[in-house]
Amino acid sequence: FTFHSLQAKMSRPVQARRLEGIDKNIWVEFVKLAATYSKVNLGQGFPDFPAPDFLREAMMRALSGGNHMLHQYTRAFGHPPLVKVLAQFFEKLLGRDLDPMTNVMVTVGAYQALFCCFQALVDEGDEVIIIEPFFDCYEPMVKMAGGTPVFVPLRPNPPKDGKLMSSADWQLDPAELASKFSERTKAIVLNSPNNPLGKVFSRGELGLIAELCVKHNVLCISDEVYEWLVYDGKQHIRIASLQGMWERTVIIGSAGKTFSATGWKVGWVVGPDRLLQHLRTVHQNSVYHCATIAQEAVAQGFQRELKLYGKPESYFVQLPKELQQKRDWLVQSLDGVGMKPIIPEGTYFLVADISPFKSDVPDVPNSDEPYDSRFAKWMVKNKGLAAIPLSAFYSEAHKNNYTNFIRFCFAKEEATLKAASDILQKWKQEKTS
């Protein structure tokens, strides 16, 4: 047995074909840059403030209480107390009866819920419509399932009166959207409230999407992880509640975003059994199940919220109030230094126009890298402020049309936001002096 025969054996590619072209990941690069250079990280979407006391207490009780079975496996498709309370909650929200065992499944974060959806529902050659800008994992997950992503952008219509733009000013062109549906279309991915823009789709916009789904018999994968984080008295409308949509929609949610505990990685899907049975097959054969103790604590969090539903002391009422103040503060401080923010209607995020600051960051002619990506790297290395380029949320084909924007996360402690504001103020003074 010689070295040559070993080499000959190794010459064929080791990676599966489905990984081709999806090996680069914006988060790997930017998380590393932020860890190395940033004084203030408004890049990644997680709060740096604590999860609520009642949730942490629930976790402590689960850990130290008398029920030692909470350290063992639970039901693979969701801890019974959690699926039960989720079913009760969503019955309220959707106005229909739900069976906790067949209409709810618990996943390792919303991320795994998405993976299950694409693996279970998308076949070789199926087309999946993705609205741009989109949370970046949708595209590689569709491709890994053998599907073809088809992109349709939200198009900005700036207000004429010189007012700041809102995420509501980014809209779908109805004719353009309709043109993307064909007999090859298997599903559309909807993300409302939308990351990165913070757009909350209106009833009219959702109605348009629903009509096209029903007409072309298309499924809807509805990523609603920011469902409680909606501002200015806006309302989050669930597309599954529209006519003809329950039977074809999978709703995805996240305890991480709902209870400000992103590291717990507890997510869920809610939908009809005819769809969820296939997701259960993927889940069963990939992660099997999610940490029992985290599910128990999240179940207790939801039990509390069910009792307080709609009352001022509900966390789901308090958190958006707090975040709206943080949003307004960051909007003011960005606007004050001349970076034009787009006011988000929901989520943790806002997108800002960096055009007035471009003079600081040299253009590199014929570069493959989008300008906003170079800008964000320069900013973290030279100013210590981390953000994410908006082009990361676009397909290759449309990346270069949206390179004047970066995304900030405002779900942060006041001290963090103030430190960011100080960096921007100082930068502006250096520009003008």
TrEMBL record:
EC nos: 2.6.1.64, 2.6.1.7, 4.4.1.13
GO cellular component: cytosol; mitochondrion
SUPFAM superfamilies xrefs: PLP-dependent transferases
Cofactor: pyridoxal 5'-phosphate
Keywords attached to this entry: Aminotransferase, Cytoplasm, Lyase, Pyridoxal phosphate, Transferase
Catalytic activity: 3-phenylpyruvate + L-glutamine = 2-oxoglutaramate + L-phenylalanine; an S-substituted L-cysteine + H2O = a thiol + pyruvate + NH4(+); L-kynurenine + 2-oxoglutarate = kynurenate + L-glutamate + H2O
Origin superkingdom: Eukaryota
GO molecular function: cysteine-S-conjugate beta-lyase activity; glutamine-phenylpyruvate transaminase activity; kynurenine-oxoglutarate transaminase activity; pyridoxal phosphate binding
InterPro entries for this protein: Aminotransferase_I/II_large (IPR004839), Kynurenine-oxoglutarate_AT (IPR051326), PyrdxlP-dep_Trfase (IPR015424), PyrdxlP-dep_Trfase_major (IPR015421), PyrdxlP-dep_Trfase_small (IPR015422)
Domain Aminotransferase class I/classII large as annotated: residue spans: 39-420
One GO-annotated biological process of the protein: kynurenine metabolic process
CDD domains reported for this sequence: AAT_like
Keyword Transferase attached: yes
Compartments (UniProt record): Cytoplasm, Cytosol
Pathway listed: Amino-acid degradation; L-kynurenine degradation; kynurenate from L-kynurenine: step 1/2
Family matches, as PANTHER family: FI04487P (PTHR43807), KYNURENINE--OXOGLUTARATE TRANSAMINASE 1 (PTHR43807:SF14)
Family statement drawn from the similarity comment of this UniProt entry: Belongs to the class-I pyridoxal-phosphate-dependent aminotransferase family.
Subunit organization: Homodimer.
Protein name, entry field: Kynurenine--oxoglutarate transaminase 1
